[in-house]
């Protein structure tokens, strides 16, 4: 239970800030890996009220984290004492996307795949490689998600962000943010609210064909029908984490219900009601074996939330 949950009037207080209080949510229901213990969740329905809400959190000394789509996230079995902030999906037409020529304003809560599709309908391309990347646009921005030669940071022009350091919402031009391989310069207390993308004109038929090609590659090489969090480890410079794990013959290796995918060695799947502990132990095994064989220290790509 978070400190905020100890206040009997908290639900009404959150509603006054345009938010919804949901105590002791099981994170296994909010992550693509299907693991994780309880945490108190606050769904944000009015992002413009965030400065007021966050002022209350700061005044009470309430620790918090931002929960996106949960597709690149591993939460420990014990759960979390932090309050999790979750931006509610927009109920507006087209998921809240606003188009103006080659630019589109996208809520951070929008689904990444749906965003690619909506843009394609208007002959706006450049995002085809991201069509099968699960999760929210905000999560994709936070880690500069990419696939098949596409990185979302390449098409960002501006971002609207709640900046915890100043307690205000600001609009940042793209040059104010560093987008690197699976990393950005956002501060831990920055909350991404929306992004403006600049996309190239591209015929719809051409976009659809490229999307089909990417989906075929993904289905042939990734365990798309099993519970996973995508690639578990980042590729070291000039190397492939999956290739090293594969060369060690670790495909199919399991700890409890967690299994290294036979289809892609850098994927761990929850095949038999795995726990977060199972997955973490399997990650440690992979790291130890790769370090011993190749002298390479693998860095996590999946985000691990511990107490």
Structure description:
With 307 residues, the chain is an alpha+beta fold. It folds into three domains: 84 residues, Uridine Diphospho-n-acetylenolpyruvylglucosamine Reductase, domain 2 (2-Layer Sandwich), CATH 3.30.43; 114 residues, Uridine Diphospho-n-acetylenolpyruvylglucosamine Reductase, domain 3, CATH 3.30.465.10; 83 residues, UDP-N-acetylenolpyruvoylglucosamine reductase, C-terminal domain (Uridine Diphospho-n-acetylenolpyruvylglucosamine Reductase, domain 1), CATH 3.90.78. It has seven helices and 18 strands. The strands form six sheets. The protein has a five-stranded antiparallel sheet, covered by helices on one side. The protein has a four-stranded mixed sheet with strand order 1-2-5-3. Strand 15 and strand 16 form a beta hairpin. It is globular, with a radius of gyration of 20 Å. The protein starts with 9 loop residues before the first helix and ends with a strand. The model has no long low-confidence stretch (mean pLDDT 94).
Decide which structural class fits the backbone.
alpha+beta
Beginning-to-end CA distance, first to last residue: 12 Å
- Oligomeric form of this entry? single chain
Strand order of the largest sheet: 6-7-14-10-11
Percentage of residues in helical conformation: 25-40%
Strand content: 15-25%
Instruction: Provide the residue-averaged pLDDT.
Output: 94
């Amino acid at each position: 239970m978070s400190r905020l949950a100890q206040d009997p009037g908290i639900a009404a207080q959150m509603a006054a800030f345009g938010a919804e209080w949901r105590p002791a949510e099981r994170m296994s229901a909010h992550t693509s890996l299907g693991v994780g213990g309880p945490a108190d969740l606050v769904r944000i329905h009015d992002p413009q009220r965030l400065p007021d809400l966050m002022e209350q959190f700061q005044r009470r000394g309430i620790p918090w984290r931002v929960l996106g789509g949960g597709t690149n996230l591993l939460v420990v079995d014990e759960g979390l004492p932090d309050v999790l902030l979750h931006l509610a999906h927009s109920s507006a037409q087209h998921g809240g996307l606003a188009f103006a020529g080659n630019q589109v304003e996208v809520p951070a809560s929008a689904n990444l795949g749906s965003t690619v599709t909506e843009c394609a309908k208007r002959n706006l391309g450049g995002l085809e490689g991201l069509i099968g990347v699960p999760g929210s646009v905000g999560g994709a921005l936070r880690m500069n998600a990419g696939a098949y030669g596409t990185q979302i940071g390449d098409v960002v022009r501006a971002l609207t962000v709640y900046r915890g350091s100043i307690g205000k919402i600001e609009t940042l031009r793209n040059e104010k943010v560093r987008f690197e391989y699976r990393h950005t310069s956002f501060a831990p207390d920055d909350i991404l609210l929306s992004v403006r993308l600049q996309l190239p004109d591209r015929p719809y038929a051409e976009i659809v064909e490229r999307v089909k090609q990417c989906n075929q590659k993904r289905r042939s090489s990734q365990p798309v029908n099993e519970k996973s969090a995508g690639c578990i480890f980042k590729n070291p410079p000039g190397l492939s984490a999956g290739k090293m794990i594969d060369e060690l013959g670790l495909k199919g290796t399991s700890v409890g219900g967690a299994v290294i995918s036979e289809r892609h060695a850098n994927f761990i799947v929850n095949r038999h009601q795995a726990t977060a502990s199972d997955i973490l132990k399997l990650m440690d095994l992979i790291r130890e074996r790769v370090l011993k064989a190749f002298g390479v220290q693998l860095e996590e790509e999946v985000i691990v939330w511990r107490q």
